[in-house]
Each structure stands twice: as C-alpha cells, then as structure tokens.
Write a structure and sequence with these properties.
By secondary structure, this protein is mainly alpha-helical. It is 64% helix and 7% strand.
C-alpha cells in the first residue's frame, strides 16, 4: 500500500500544478495579466456569493496568510470589493465586482468547455465521480489526522475511513 499511496500523493501535487498552468494559459489566452492563476481560482470559488475570509479559507482550503494577500491584490485590481461587518468589525466580507463577475463567468464557460473536451476523450462521468470519491476519502483521512491528532498505523483514520 505504501507505493500506491506515495504515487497518489505525488500525482495530487503534479495534477494541481498542471491545473494551475492550465488556468494561467487560459488567462494568457484571453489577455488578462492583472490577476494570477491562484487568485483566479479564489475568485472562482467566491463565485456569486459574499463570503468572509474565514469562510473562503474553510471552503477553498487556502492558508490564511495567502488568502489575505491574494484578496488584497484582487481588491487593488478591482476584482473584489470588501466590506467590514457592521455587527463584528473584525469580520470582512468579500464579493466580486462587475469586473470580477465578468472573469468568473468567463472561467465558468472555460471550465464547461474543458468538461466537454474531457468527455470527448471518452472519459466517463462515472470515472470522474469515482476519482472525486477517492479524493474525498483521502481528504477525510488527512483531516482526521490533523484535526483530531489521531492516527491508526493499521491504515484507518480518525474518521474510520480506510484509504
């Protein structure tokens, strides 16, 4: 199990880097240079919602300092606007500006095109769903290790999920 596990972890890292390169290439293709690939994914994860930085971190699994920096840059480049909560002055809510919504809609179309092109390679939806299920199991397993500081050397995580 060790070799497949390590291959899985390495594949995750490679696939994530490759996807960031794809997002960068798509930004270049549409001539957008004032936002980077990571910021574009954060923007896409905000979508049409209004979120706090904490909600964004929880939803996107970003590190706090990275989100704060990237949100600040996206505000400077007018993709996001932020507003301090009237009820809790420590809390800041962010939402897309019209410029941010335009980029969100462009990437929604781009990702839909990617999905169509992937389907044309004879990749089945069931295969994608199975891969997602495996990723969710790994996420749950690793979350159990981190959040509950539990580890069972027999391969069962704190959540009882075998991986």
């Amino acid at each position: 199990m060790l070799q497949p596990y390590l291959e899985f972890v390495r594949s995750l890292e490679r696939v994530h880097r490759q996807f960031l390169e794809v997002v960068k290439a798509e930004l270049d293709k549409i001539g957008i240079q004032d936002i980077n690939n990571v910021q574009t994914l954060i923007l896409f994860n905000i979508g049409l919602d209004e979120l706090t930085i904490g909600e964004l971190i929880n939803r996107g699994y970003y590190l706090g300092s990275n989100v704060s920096y990237n949100v600040r840059k996206m505000v400077e480049n007018t993709y996001l606007e932020q507003q301090r909560s009237v009820h809790d002055r420590r809390s800041v809510r962010v939402r897309l500006t019209p410029k941010g919504k335009d980029l969100f809609l462009k990437f929604r179309d781009i990702f839909a095109s990617h999905a169509d092109r992937l389907a044309a390679t004879h990749t089945k939806e069931s295969e994608i769903r199975q891969a997602c299920d495996t990723l969710h199991k790994a996420e749950k397993f690793w979350s159990g290790i981190i959040e509950y500081n539990l580890y069972n050397p027999g391969g069962v995580g704190a959540t009882g999920t075998s991986f």
